[in-house]
Amino acid sequence: MSKSTDRGPTREGWPLNDALIRHRLLALDRRYLFALPNITVGRVTAEIVQELEQIAVEYETLLRGGASISPRFSEATVRVKIGDALGSAAWACEALQEPDRARAFFMAAALIYKRAGAPEKARRCRAELDRLNFYRADGAPAARSPRTAAS
Q1: Domain around 78
Q2: Domain tally, the chain
Q3: pTM tops 0.90
Q4: What is the pLDDT along the chain (151 residues), one digit of tens a residue?
Q5: CA–CA gap between residue 59 and residue 71 (Å, rounded)
Q6: Taking Cα atoms as reference points, which of 116, 111, 117 lies closest to residue 90?
Q7: Could you tell me if residue 4 is inside a domain?
């Protein structure tokens, strides 16, 4: 049996106590904050996108491991953190000029935010999706915005 590392995911099925959950959340928050400056054009790499994806997966693993039943940590708070990591991955993909991956991450983040009860953050992700869907890679409009089409 291997020991859990600071960067490794929590093993499913292990009961988590509040101290361990707090430690894991703080470690994930630190990793996320250190990744953020690297999502800008010129600094972003595919490794940063993978790191942000992994952070989102590890937050989800914490939820499955017991964070949602702990009185000190709300499921909604952790889900917002998952959405933040996915949204940042979307921005990183956009900086890497990978609009299809960015769309997928924005869509996933919007769904997570909705489930977490964060409608404003979900709305912002949907607005970014609309923007990405409106413009093609060459900068020419691909389609009319759904909002203007309804007008």
Answers
A1: 18-150
A2: 1
A3: no
A4: 444 444 444 455 445 577 788 888 999 999 999 999 999 989 999 999 999 999 999 999 988 876 656 666 788 999 999 999 999 999 999 999 999 999 999 999 999 999 999 999 999 999 999 999 887 655 554 444 445 445 4
A5: 17
A6: 111
A7: no
